[in-house]
Write a structure and sequence with these properties.
The structure is a homodimer of 211-residue chains. The first copy, chain A, is of the alpha+beta class and 211 residues long. Chain A has a single domain, classed as 3-Layer(bba) Sandwich (Chalcone isomerase). Chain A contains four helices and nine strands. In chain A, the strands form three sheets. Chain A has a five-stranded antiparallel beta sheet. In chain A, strands 1-9 form a two-stranded antiparallel sheet. The longest helix of chain A has 11 residues. The first copy, chain A, is globular and about 50 Å long. At the A-B interface, helix 1, strand 2, strand 3, strand 6 and strand 7 of A face helix 1, strand 2, strand 3, strand 6 and strand 7 of B.
């Protein structure tokens, strides 16, 4: 293959500015360096004038951290989340977490729900060439968690949002009450109300910092 | 928060060049634009002098496409891959696929294997606050697939590699024989020997292009 190497700064920069999605900072805690040495850009939470959270942009290009699965068939047909939970963290926040062991203000977790393909077995699984199990199917809404200590003082500084439990995802979402999401995170999630115990991507870093 | 907006071109560019990881191209099929308008950089396969594949770099920052699960307990204790299959695609290749409906030469799929946390139930599941199911545990090696029509003519232009079925991952890997991986992909994977039927992230694009 005959490829010309030419670094397209202007394209990268123009697109970043035009999209309005990325915050580049020259100082302060919003500056961070990813493991490969790149300067990490951050996407920060965006709100409507009345304080609803706007559906985060571009999450499928974020850092995937894990995908727990609690199928309906194993939960008397009524799992709270019968789908794959594809959990992503905003990459600029992750870079800071890697460096400090703390989730910075503005951290966003995006949990995209993805149905399993319909299964013929009693446990909801199906059989494919790779074996009997659970296979990803259609997307089915999303939940989002945002860290902002000033905005969410009653839930340890985290806000919880649901952008529908079906498609299409809502464009904006209102804060969920504490007893719907926050209380369970506060009671059982290992680190700073995040379920790091199910995400080695996060837990290995927590342990490195003694958390 | 008081943040200064300053675009750090030199840092981004210097790191990209220094790492040697990214190919920027001003023309040809290696140029591509991601959905958000950014110019997509590509990481292309790297080989040792004797033709072994070098473990791809930075895959956890790639685009996650899905995580099928075929637990041992549902496969008579001997699933080929009893772990979560966390499948990623190299982002520059994905951008081209989004635009053309074809996996370009140099496409890399990275399947990171991740054990489920030990479960107390007969089906290998465990019970947590979110329900009974399967939860991600330690990483456990990786499989990698590379598209190169000239290098892999006997397997439809795809090469299959294993970087251990345990940690740490191997630094390099030799090509696996056709009957170990390629033949099953060739027989049953929906699009260009890729299991798009289990990855709506890929399948929705294939359908858009009639594939």
């Amino acid at each position: 293959m005959n490829r010309k190497s030419a670094v397209l700064f202007s394209v990268l920069a123009g697109a970043s500015l035009a999209s309005g999605m990325f915050m580049f900072s020259s100082s302060g805690d919003a500056q961070s360096t990813a493991p490969d040495g790149r300067e990490a850009a951050r996407y920060l939470p965006e709100y409507t004038p009345n304080g609803d959270l706007i559906l985060p942009k571009n999450w499928r290009h974020w850092v995937f951290v894990g995908s727990p699965l609690t199928p309906n068939a194993l939960n008397d047909g009524k799992a709270n989340f019968p789908e794959f939970h594809n959990v992503y963290i905003e990459p600029g926040s992750f870079a800071i977490y890697e460096k400090t062991g703390k989730f910075p203000e503005g951290t966003i977790f995006f949990k995209e729900l993805q149905l399993t393909l319909k299964g013929e077995n009693p446990d909801g699984s199906r059989t494919e060439p790779s074996g009997r199990g659970y296979f990803p199917g259609p997307f089915n809404g999303a939940d989002v968690t945002v860290k902002d200590s000033k905005r969410y003082p009653d839930t340890d500084g985290w806000g919880y949002y649901n952008f529908n439990h079906h498609e299409p995802k809502a464009k904006t979402a209102s804060l969920r009450p504490k007893d719907e999401c926050g209380s369970c995170h506060m009671a059982s999630a290992r680190k700073d109300d995040v379920w790091t115990q199910f995400y080695p991507m996060l837990d290995d870093i927590a342990k490195k910092f003694g958390g």
